[in-house]
Amino acid sequence: MKTNYFLKRLIFLMLASLAMLSCKKNINEHPEEGGKKQTVKFMVTGANNDLGTAGDAVNAPLKDLIKQLTIVVYQSFTGQEYTRVTQLATDPNFGELSLDLPLNTYNFVAIGSRSLFGINQFYQGATNTVILPFNEGNMQYWQPNQSPSEKLYKTDDTFVATIMNTINANQTINLNMERIVGKLEVLVEDVANYEVDVNNEATGYLFAAKTSFGSIENDFGYIVNNTKGPISIYILRTDKPLEIEVSGGGRRRSLSVPVYKNKRTVVKGKLLEPIGKVGFSFVINDKWLADTTLVTL
Q: For domain 38-114+156-179, which architecture applies?
């Protein structure tokens, strides 16, 4: 009888333990969908709060730096997207957004750009919403064409912030975004009129990997000339060298140049130098210039 009693007692304790474990809530596994949500307020400020290094535009308000701000929320444990919210610079409260979120730990990604963009897709005419996990989540500049082989140059000043935070009460999260683009500046000293053909500029940015991807259409690339002043363009491709062609005066030079986030790559040289001589050189400049600043090379 004693053996049966202790055996029954042991089985009872095991069942009770399993029941307690099954009832125990793990804040990192699933949001409390049926419970009370917490209000999270996001504050994204301008360049005067470390929004990159904007040179002469250091005190510029946020609406002068970007046209679109999007915040994407991912559940940290599963990596799945929970929600997202987009705000345009025409909003009088631009840079201030609120979301009601269940108790959980999240990855928050804030993206801001002067060029309008999509999340996980590039075709501007798309009517569907594409949901991807955090390790595949991305932004892509809007394109007018559906075909990946017809992507055009759309890069403009762009910033990103990524943080992880546990939400267990109402709170305010301050987001300081960092510039993810660089600038390419080209000056040809011995030809009055010249142009630059950019062949492999990126078209999107991966949040988790923090790297660019995609490519503009290579049949024509992106061609810009100096008729309106010194060439100075934004570049998203900062993870590998940028392939460009400089042409003018009946000559063409192919160059491979590095471009870094929040820095200027200054390419300078001569097209009419004899074949075999080094015609171009480049330097990396840490000082960022506002678009209204005359580029001096």
A: Sandwich (2.60)
CA distances (Å), origin 231, targets 86, 184, 207, 216, 279: 32, 8, 29, 19, 18
**What single-letter amino acid sits at 162?**
T
- Mind listing the pLDDT tens digit for each residue in 26-85? 444 455 555 689 999 999 975 433 444 444 445 578 888 999 999 999 999 999 999 999
| Ranges of CATH 2.60.40.2100 domains, the chain | 38-114+156-179
Residue with token string 């897709």? 121
Which residue, among 107, 98, 101, has the nearest Cα to 36 in the 3D structure?
Answer: 101
Cross-strand bridge partners of residue 223: 197
Query: Which CATH architecture group holds 182-285?
Result: Sandwich (2.60)
Q: Which two tokens stand for residue 70?
A: 């999007």
128 token code pair: 């569907």
